[in-house]
Write a structure and sequence with these properties.
- This protein is an alpha/beta fold.
- Helices cover about 30% and strands about 15% of the residues.
- The chain contains six helices and six strands.
- Strand 1, helix 1 and strand 2 form a beta-alpha-beta unit.
- The longest helix is centred in the C-terminal third of the chain and has 17 residues.
């Protein structure tokens, strides 16, 4: 068995550290990772945690509230937005690349003002079924607004991993896409997803 890289935690032939370009952003990240996802060969949550300084990555099925998941005494859910696709039935055409929904699942009237108030993103890391389980096991997520992605491009995984829906992206891509939109810095997407692009390149040989 190949030695494991201590930073990206992948076998040395699959190391993607050369593509890391860490950033410090005004928006914090909290990744809730399903226990079964921790062993996924192409999982991207650790890559995201290495890329965005201050990211908190926790593995489990449920937490009492946002503060507990963050490992902090208090936290304001209204300042955090969760990235979650939701059901197909609620998907409606939109020209916005990133749509902010209120607690009832309706689009927020003043999208720009609401998005500017976001100070943190919550990501559910796992397969579609695993992410759905995390969503339902943590009802406190409903206290935060929700972001839905409308990406202009398919996942970098291509044929390596099938996504259940067109707007389905890896955890790393979803965060990079949302952060690029929220900060107004389009360069963040290629910068943050560079390790995944290198991983896919290695996988394709």
């Amino acid at each position: 068995m190949s030695d494991i890289c201590p930073r990206c935690r992948r076998p040395l032939p699959w190391c993607v550290c050369a593509a890391f370009d860490p950033v410090e952003l005004p928006i914090r990240l909290l990744i809730l990772r399903h226990p079964q996802e921790s062993a996924a060969a192409l999982g991207t949550a650790p890559l995201l945690a290495e890329q965005v300084r201050g990211t908190r990555l926790v593995t489990g099925l449920s937490w009492p509230n946002l503060a507990k998941a963050l490992g902090e005494v208090t936290a304001e859910p209204s300042r955090w937005a969760s990235l979650y696709l939701g059901g197909k039935a609620e998907t409606k055409p939109t020209d916005l690349p990133l749509l902010l929904l209120d607690r009832k699942g309706a689009p927020v009237a003043d999208q720009a003002a609401a998005k500017s108030a976001i100070s943190g993103l919550i990501l559910l890391d796992g397969s579609w079924a695993e992410a759905k389980a995390l969503w339902w096991r943590n009802p406190w997520l409903l206290k935060s607004p929700r972001l839905k992605l409308n990406p202009r491009r398919p996942s970098l995984y291509g044929t390596l991993r099938r996504e259940p829906r067109r707007e389905g992206l890896s955890t790393l891509e979803a965060a990079a896409f949302a952060l690029a939109e929220l900060t107004g810095d389009p360069s963040l997407f290629p910068r943050l997803t560079a390790p995944l692009a290198l991983l896919v390149q290695k996988a394709k040989g």
